[in-house]
Amino acid sequence: MVKDDTSRVKTLEKEVDKLHKELAECEERFKLLSNVTFEGIILHKKGTIIYANDSFLKLLGFSQDEVVGENFMNYIPKAEDKSEICHKTERNYQKSYNVIVQRKDGSTFMAELEGRNTIYYGAPICITTIRDITDRIQTEKKLLESEKKYRTLFNNLIDAFALQKVITDSEGKVVDYIFLDVNQAFRQLMDLKQNEIIGKKITEINLNREQKIPMMIETFGQIALNGGVVRFENFTEPLNRWFSVLVFSPQKGYFSTIVEDITDRKKAENDIKELLNAKEILLHEVHHRVKNNMATIESLLRLHIHRTKNEEVISALQDAGGRVKSMRILYEKLFRSDNFSEVDICDYLTPLIDEIFQVFPNKYQIKVIKDIEHFKINAKLVFPLGIIINELISNIMKYAFQ
After folding, report:
1. pLDDT tens digits, one per residue of 334-373
2. Reduced DSSP (H G I as helix, E B as strand, rest coil) percent helix, strand, coil of the chain, to 5
């Protein structure tokens, strides 16, 4: 009987040793896992720390000996945070929440805590993880500031702006699109409130132009799926206004629309066209009259040449006719040119020389060879040059054969 009891004791001792060994191995694995994680982990019993991993020690700047046995609340400077931790621990609250934690050097940081109540060596404890979310908070703050600036800019844009997402059927064909975001200018343009357009399909919105909706779905759908940019101008009869529309795809399946009211610009363009047309008509009329007047002067000078036999008078009249001819040809070239400040010298001198020679009766005795390069000079210099050429040729024709 004693022998059997001794045998059972030894068996129990072996089992206890085995359990102690397994427990030690579990603790070792837990410490290993907790020390390789980037999150701070502590085990505490009613706030008293019984274990802290390396990440927690590094995060707060303490050693293991300095924290074990200390109350975790010693590192929470704000009373309201201490109250929140106690309340959530008692309720076994298993979602993350934020509190301020103090380091050994007195500095603080925003931490995200998450706790789990469990049993450890037969006693209730709490496992709490601690994450430093200072960088995340700052990033979120910057994102919020950026979003606020974007939203301010977005809503104060003069042009109407909308972001849309296409809706496709089972075959991938675009059948509709939905409005995700619009600015104030777009809402005013559509004469709709925010809740009347955001989240609505284009087919659900009354635009008073139902006949164009299928075409809009097809055109904008192609841009959303295939990319690209399309710009076009459109006249809206219900509003009696012109719009410039720019459509592009920021990412596959989405497209953005920027609508600019160009009614005033269109009106100004039409006014300019009408003004230009009126000036064109006036310019042609003036040109016609100036040209006729010059031709009349030339004709009168020729009549006087034919009516007199005085050589000096004939010479003077021919010189005057040559000058008028130079002016007429220059005027004609300037009128037909797109550039009024410069004249091609070859285009000007070639007809001028031909017409000067036509005045003289002995023109058939001379063969004229013109070797003039194409280059432009200031229009102000062309007329004096024409006078000089006229005088040279006239003197040649008058005196070279005497």
Report:
1. 666 666 677 788 887 888 788 777 767 777 777 888 888 8
2. 55, 20, 20
Q: What are phi and psi of 326, to 5 degrees?
A: -60, -40
Contacts of 193 (CB under 8 A, 6+ apart): 187
**Crossing angle of helices 311-335/345-358, nearest 10°?**
150
Of 268, 269, 389, 271, the closest CA to residue 329 belongs to 389
3-state secondary structure of 362: helix
Sign of the dihedral through C-alpha 226, 231, 235, 238: positive
Are the CB atoms for 319 and 339 separated by under 8 Å?
A: no
**Which tens digit of pLDDT belongs to each residue from 33-69?**
555 567 899 989 988 999 888 889 999 999 989 999 9
Handedness of CA 333, 335, 336, 341 (dihedral sign): positive
Dihedral angle of Cα 200, 206, 211, 216, to the nearest 10 degrees: -30
Which tokens belong to 355?
């017409």
Torsion sign over Cα 186, 188, 194, 199: negative
Q: 134's torsion region: left (phi>0), alpha (psi -120 to 50) or beta?
A: alpha
pLDDT per residue over 249-298, tens digit each? 989 999 999 888 888 888 888 888 888 877 777 766 666 777 777 778 87
Q: At what angle do helices 345-358 and 379-399 cross, to 10 degrees?
A: 30
